[in-house]
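Appendix B, Record 12. Input sequence as logged:
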Amino acid sequence: MAFSLDLKVPTFLDSTKLSGREFQTDTVALEKKSLNLLVFLVTGISSISKPDKKQLAMVYCYYTRRPHRFFFPMSSQIQLLVALLLLCSVALGSAFSIREIIKGGKRNDESAPGPCPTWHPFQCPNGDCIPIKYLCDGSPDCSDEYDENQSMCTAATRPPVEETASFLKALLNAHGKDFLVKLFGPKARNELQGMGGVDQVAVALSQSPTIETFAKEMKLTEEETARLAEILDAIVSGSTSELTANEAADFRFFVQKLQETGFF
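Logged structural output:
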């Protein structure tokens, strides 16, 4: 990005032209003018949000290439003060806060949040980064409370959606494309097409906190929901009459996971 330094030179500096006599007889006044000049230049640097080496070099050239206007003798005390002023200007321009680091982006760069650091790896929708341990702990940390989103927190306790989808597909391949009608009812015919397909059902099983939430999303009737709950209970207890022993065994591990996470 191109940079242009627009420093408006004060009148007292622009009109300053010193003779050799002035150099010899008015040292204090000259040093005051030198100090005023450097304060002016440093103010110009400090107004830049993030000065880089190129910008500082341009300020330096602006000063050194005008000896007839801007060169004054400086004592060691003034030189030290100048160095401190320049150092402070750089520090002010490049200052940062821990908040900016946690956000994952650079200071004054709000357009595109960067990746979160390893010690705060979860990024909230607004760009803030928080520790993994703060997720689903009952206390919102994201400004929109996304870290306590019920669907997300439920999914964190269930098998991954990809594994659930693979499991359902394996059941259909092993027992037929209408096999899951035994669990979900007529809508599950033809590989769950009436329920949105295998992937949609896998997502709902992953993020639905309860069987009622799942039934509402899948548009199951009250009778279908009650029947599903009975079959799931029977699978866990090993007393189902709707499924063969082998079919129930195929289901048991997954159904136990649903039970442990409050699905039914």
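The longest strand covers residues 122-123.
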